[in-house]
Design a protein that fits this description.
Layout (H helix, E strand, L loop, with lengths): L1 H10 L3 E5 L5 H9 L4 E4 L2 H10 L5 E4 L8 H4 L5 E5 L2 H13 L4 E7 L12 H8 L2 H4 L4 E8 L7 H22 L8 E3 L6 H6 L4 E4 L1 H4 L4
Parallel strand pairs: 1-2, 1-8, 2-3, 3-4, 4-5, 5-6, 6-7
The structure holds pyridoxal-5'-phosphate.
Length: about 220
């Protein structure tokens, strides 16, 4: 599966984040040996433990909800935080970035699904964040784009519309807040069940777990 998937994604210039949550280090190493370097985890503790026991050149992506009090554990090594959904969280990421003398790359997570439970900003909240004095003062975070999850549904038309909405949000933010920022270029959307739709709608990063590793417990 891995090689076929990678071939398609490479042809479209899309980055694969292999979502390894719940799977042991050996499974990560199997893909690592095939050349995969970007891995995604949704829990801080699990990511920290795996990172300590796996090769240093793995790029760890935090894709799940991040609590402010846990930022400090991942700040030394995290490659990209996909799930920034508040100014308060971003302030803590900036603070921890400063502590470790790193600039931490982040994506703003948007709520594009119909379900109530999913985390994420709406466009107004993002605009408030990006125009705040607090954000203007940050020196140790870099906003590299947006992330979103589509609804959990069989309705591919709906999924497509949600991805289109995220792409539109990205374009809007690019024009208004990041016109001269080449690093603002990522749209993280698409999982095992909907990555092809996401790719068609302009995804630059897909986060794929079960398709690569099998179903989780
Ligand atoms: C688990 C997870 C994924 C991967 O899900 P699969 O359906 O297994 O591909 C992607 N994104 C987030 C935020 C996740 O929590």
């Amino acid at each position: 599966m891995y090689n076929e998937l990678l071939k398609v994604l490479n042809a479209h210039g899309v980055t694969l984040v292999a979502v390894s949550k719940t799977h042991p280090a050996e499974r990560i190493l199997e893909l690592y040996q095939k050349g995969q370097r970007a891995f995604g985890e949704n829990r801080v503790q699990e990511m920290v433990e795996k990172a300590a026991n796996l090769p240093d050149d793995i790029e760890w992506h935090l894709i799940g909800h991040l609590q402010t009090n846990k930022v400090r554990y991942i700040a030394p090594f995290v490659h990209l935080i996909h799930s920034v959904d508040s100014l308060r969280l971003l302030e803590e990421i900036d603070k921890q970035g400063a502590k470790h003398n790193r600039i931490l790359d982040c994506l703003l997570q948007f709520h594009i699904a119909s379900e109530e439970t999913k985390y994420g900003l709406d466009e107004d909240e993002a605009a408030d964040l990006l125009t705040s004095d607090a954000f203007a003062a940050m020196r140790h975070v870099r906003i590299c784009g947006v992330m979103g999850m589509a609804s959990f549904t069989e309705d591919t038309h709906m999924i497509r519309q949600e991805f289109q909405a995220l792409k539109a949000i990205y374009e809007n933010l690019k024009i208004h807040f990041f016109p001269d920022a080449p690093h603002f270029r990522e749209i993280s959307m698409g999982m095992s069940s909907d990555w092809e739709i996401a790719m068609e709608e302009g995804s630059t990063i897909v986060r794929i777990g079960s398709l690569l590793f099998g179903t989780r417990q």
